[in-house]
Design a protein that fits this description.
It is built from no helices and 11 strands. By secondary structure, the protein is mainly beta.
Length: 119
Amino acid sequence: QVQLVESGGGLVQAGGSLRLSCTVSGRTFGDFAMGWSRQAPGKAREFLGAITWNGDKTYIHERFEGRLTISRDNANNKLYLQMNNLKVEDTAVYYCAGDPDRLYEYAYWGQGTQVTVSS
């Protein structure tokens, strides 16, 4: 059974940074293309970016270029989302997701981790 577990969320002041992690178990991590999305209260889920199976390419939504970085450590089954210059509007639940065949659509999702940015 594939499981994705996010961690690293919390409360941070505007302008600060945070790194989220996602640990994958149940299958070889390198089998999955991975991505990050978020959902703010009352809003639709929003795609942030993706990373290829071996991590050689990353794609960040243009809205977040320059502030977000996605990386992965296949040896340790971990995906990361580095977020810099956080804004109050970045407050949301952040989700990691993975799929063995697709880069931008995902069969597996984590439960999410809350990020709250205070002014």
